[in-house]
Amino acid sequence: MKRTIVFIITLFLLILASGCATSLTNNRRLNMEPLFNYDRDTDKESTELDAVGPFFTFQSKPKEKEYGFRPFFYVRENEEDRFKEVEFLYPLGKYRKTDNERSSWFIPFFSSHKDLTEDSKKPSDFGFFPVFWGKDEEDKSYWGVFPIYGQLNHRFGKDQIRFVLWPVYSDSKEDDSWTYNVLWPIFSYTTGGNKRGFRAWPLYGHEEKVGEYSRYFALWPIFFFQKTDLDTDNPQRFTAVFPLFADTSSPQKDSKTFLWPFFNYTNDKANNYKQWDMPWPIFHYGKGKEIESFRLFPLYGYKTKPDSKTRFFLWPLYTYDKEILEDHEDTTYRFLLINKYQRMVWKGDFKDAKSVRIWPLFYYNRKQDGSVKFSFPELIPLEDEGFERNWAPLFRLYQYKGDAEGNMESKFLWGLYRHKKMDSKEFFELTFLFSYEKEKNKTCFSVLKGLFEYLQENEVNSIKLFYLPRLIKWESGEENQKQPVLPASRRLGDGWVYEGIEQGG
Length: 505
What we know:
Layout: H1 2-17, E1 27-31, E2 36-41, E3 46-51, E4 56-61, E5 64-69, E6 73-78, E7 83-88, E8 93-97, E9 101-106, E10 110-115, E11 124-128, E12 131-135, E13 141-145, E14 149-155, E15 158-164, E16 169-174, E17 177-182, E18 187-191, E19 195-200, E20 204-209, E21 213-218, E22 223-228, E23 236-241, E24 245-249, E25 253-258, E26 263-268, E27 273-277, E28 283-288, E29 292-296, E30 300-305, E31 308-313, E32 318-324, E33 328-335, E34 339-346, E35 352-358, E36 362-366, E37 372-376, H2 385-390, E38 398-402, E39 408-412, E40 417-422, E41 425-430, E42 434-439, E43 442-447, E44 452-457, E45 460-465, E46 472-475, E47 484-485, E48 490-492, E49 495-498, E50 501-503
Antiparallel strand pairs: 1-2, 2-3, 3-4, 4-5, 5-6, 6-7, 7-8, 8-9, 9-10, 10-11, 11-12, 12-13, 13-14, 14-15, 15-16, 16-17, 17-18, 18-19, 19-20, 20-21, 21-22, 22-23, 23-24, 24-25, 25-26, 26-27, 27-28, 28-29, 29-30, 30-31, 31-32, 32-33, 33-34, 34-35, 35-36, 36-37, 37-38, 38-39, 39-40, 40-41, ...
């Protein structure tokens, strides 16, 4: 019984593979969607395989490979760049390896990183919550079991961090200064080097770094006083009694706020610009030498600068943004924030790029090089490469991509219908039911991959019925259009012979 089933399946696949779906030069295909679709181009040494609709995908090119089972994992490899990346339940997990580093994580449970460069001391770290360990650039080891005990070197902007029963006790080292915390963030004490400080939150706190800054608070978040940027030519002073009053002053800019954040006045002396908010965010007006802004929220607002312009009308119904960069201009119109029309124009060569999103209907994108992508529907409005690989194909019924040379590929219902054009070859197919192919010297139409098939090749026409060898052939052209040639015949001058009987021409 098993042998019979295997024989029937094998015969069925051979019959399907016998149709014109495999007749394009140097191209082998077998479309059995929604089960699978196989496409092999021997010229380009590329292979594509999709199975179970959009869930499984495999793509292979010389020195490059991609495959995945959406949305669980997706793998990318490039031998030339010595690169490998694996995404797990994107964006939660990722593994990445290059010549310079190897890193991996799965939020919030696991993370690791190792420096692979030859000219470094190869710092590394590994964490599998709540355990972690690693080595720093000085080849010193550290480890911990959070929150019981642990030490970290050169992490989170500190030279060293230690904790015991966090947040009961922890300390950290930065340059020559140490900060000790008890019941963080309530009590802390800083000493050593040019830093000192004390905090009993929320009653009082003070932190100072000689020559750079000095900060105080009392009854947090009500009273604040601080001096910052003391080592620059623009030192700042900030005083606040929240939410009643706040004042910021410096040689270049002054700002006063009453009943924060409602009433604000700013005087930007460096840019000769003054701004009023009364109350924020409803009314706003600002004017300077090269800057002007106005807002009557949510009715209308604008801001103009030498390198940018923004406007809105009945926010969030309509917004407009234009950015003038060194080599191109970027203009974006948005409708209800999600829907957008964006155009970028490059100076000099006048090349442009466009993208249009009408949510949840479609998304269109044309890049500067002429490549085009279109998808329908576009349910989740994210422009992210990882999301595009792992999630987007699951929600799309129709996809199209093409390039400036005229090559294109489109598919509908996750590949049940496909249309592809590459170089001089083109084909349409509706899974294994119908297919049409065309290239320079060949045209083929097939039903059920050979139940009925018409083929024209080098001015020779033929018909296949019921998967049998081609029974009828004739040549194209004015002289031979009405002269069919059966497989058993041979040409004799202007006539034809069938089963040994010569017939008149």
